Amino acid sequence: MQDLANWWPEFWQQWQTPIRILAILLGTLIARWILLASVRRVLNQVENGTNGKLNHPDAKQASQSPIAKARVIQRSRTLASVLSNLITWSLLLFAVGAVLSELGVAVGALVASAGILGAALGFGAQSLVKDLINGLFIIFEDQFGVGDSVDLGEARGVIENVGLRVTQVRDVNGVLWYVRNGEIIRVGNHSQGWSRVILDIPLSYKVNIEKAREVILEAAKELVKDSNFAKRMLGQPEIWGIESITADQVVMRLVQQVGPQDADDVARELRLRVKKKLDAAKITLASDKNSIFVDVPDSAKKPEKAKR
Predict the structure, then answer these.
(1) Is 142 left (phi over 0), alpha (psi -120 to 50) or beta?
(2) Which positions, given as ranges, span the membrane (predicted)?
């Protein structure tokens, strides 16, 4: 017993530095494993919750479910990736600093040197840092996601992928645009909350406006009652009145509020039904051809007789 009491102080005095370093490394690995497991658990709960909501009877249509699911899952995975990298690098820097301190290295001087180096690198990579920071805000604030129809200025189309540095947008011609997040100054999102179908219908100036109004509104209400489109509609259609008037035509505006992903489909079907109803009621649309009347003098109408 006396020998053990004498041995331990000598052993600790000789091996305390390696033991502390080993404890720091083990503690860092255990802490990283626990934190990353927590992140993965939260991510799995989000994905499972998304599947449950999308399968709920009150959820949106099944055709929209894959897009909504991809958006939520991609956003969750991106946030999880950012948190995982932050945890890993924070613990790594802590462990390196603690190990160097145990070895007797002046950590303060190294931190100062690293700060100067980091400032130089940050100055040289300003655009990259700007892209990453803006990408984080886009994801955290949920400005847009996969499947959204957006207007980013130069690029307009549907979002296919949202990354920390680059966002991918597919336009109507099928071109895939890679937009740096740092270059996105404004975002117009057509897919958040609800959307609105606006049809401006040009009618002939001589058309009975009240009759045309009733026919157009009847076509819109029939579409609302259609089982294939009823779930996409939000509220009843409205005639906002005469949008513009000229000597040749009267433009009447029809408005229908719809779901965020349904504007294009509803607009196409609504145009078709309005066209059929107007044809059945024998209501003519305005022509894009302008009539030109030329006043011809009487002297020009009667050609002079040829002189003999």
Answers:
(1) left
(2) 17-35, 79-100, 106-125
